[in-house]
Amino acid sequence: MLTVSTRHAIDPVSAKALDTKGLRDAFHMDGLFAEGQINLVYTHYDRMIVGGAVPGGAALVLDHVKECGTASILDRREMGIVNIGAEGTVSAGGSDYAMARGDVLYLPMGAGPVTFAGAGRFYILSCPAHHAYPARLVPIGEAKQVHLGEAATSNKRTIYQFIHPDVMPACQLVVGYTQFHEGSVWNTMPAHLHDRRMEAYLYFDLAENARVFHFMGEPSETRHLVMKNEEAVVSPPWSIHCGAGTGAYTFIWAMAGDNVDYRDVEMVGMEDLR
Ligand SMILES: O=C(O)C(=O)C[C@H](O)C(=O)CO
Ligand SMILES: [Zn+2]
């Protein structure tokens, strides 16, 4: 079964006035991963689609999505898929890709219907594309690593860049995930902004009772959302996006927009956060 919901783009003036439910309705995404279902959220932030596919006992096929206005979802889009579950297979464009936990798959524009099978829990990201680059399965050993933070500031972490210009070409999709060293809980702190790209975070590997307090908003108007395991949040281009966990977690970040330069960010000074 396929479900698709829509998130419209919210401006910073409107966002200031939202209460907890309003913020969650606008930015928070849950229920993406349900056995036997493909659940997508079509956002109007650079038209990024965020979703999940959990085939369980029977293969699931992702093909026509009315919101995209094309016969098949990848007719004018590219896609990144991250397996956060056990071994599974994704098939597209006449090829089968066996995906272990943590593997990332890039599928280009024109790859056709996408089939999900096996015990995988597949996180899906898709944005408009203008060129068909080669499909590629990227295991963690082929990702580029960036080491950031310190144990003393509880933010020592390794950023793994998969769909990234230093690893492989893509049109506008940039995808990777961030793992923490023991005891570090803060992601993306010091915080940053990137007006030329939206971003979406999926928090996973959380224990049942653990939560991530995710911070968003303009630096002078921050708000928080409390996130459980396998919940996602969309970050508008005007918003910071960072968080602290009450326990261990991993998060997948994905961006789309005007450029693919990961370093094209504006750092936010601690003195500017409110
Ligand atoms: O922990 C971090 O710092 C990140 O992973 C940052 C994200 O990758 C990001 O926000 C990229 O713009
Ligand atoms: Zn960012």
From TrEMBL:
Spans through the membrane: none
CDD domains in alphabetical order: cupin_KduI_C (cd20491), cupin_KduI_N (cd20294)
Top-level taxon of origin: Bacteria
Pathway stated in the Swiss-Prot or TrEMBL entry: Glycan metabolism; pectin degradation; 2-dehydro-3-deoxy-D-gluconate from pectin: step 4/5
Top EC category: isomerase
Reaction equations catalysed: 5-dehydro-4-deoxy-D-glucuronate = 3-deoxy-D-glycero-2,5-hexodiulosonate
EC number: 5.3.1.17
Cofactor note: Binds 1 zinc ion per subunit.
Keywords (A to Z) from UniProt: Isomerase, Metal-binding, Zinc
GO molecular function: 4-deoxy-L-threo-5-hexosulose-uronate ketol-isomerase activity; zinc ion binding
GO aspect biological process, one term: D-galacturonate catabolic process
UniProt-listed InterPro entries: KduI (IPR007045), KduI/IolB_isomerase (IPR021120), KduI_N (IPR027449), RmlC-like_jellyroll (IPR014710), RmlC_Cupin_sf (IPR011051)
Ligand binding (Zn(2+)): 192, 194, 199, 241
Cofactor(s) this protein requires: Zn(2+)
PANTHER family assigned: 4-DEOXY-L-THREO-5-HEXOSULOSE-URONATE KETOL-ISOMERASE
Family under the similarity heading: Belongs to the KduI family.
Task performed by this protein: Catalyzes the isomerization of 5-dehydro-4-deoxy-D-glucuronate to 3-deoxy-D-glycero-2,5-hexodiulosonate.
Name of the protein in question: 4-deoxy-L-threo-5-hexosulose-uronate ketol-isomerase
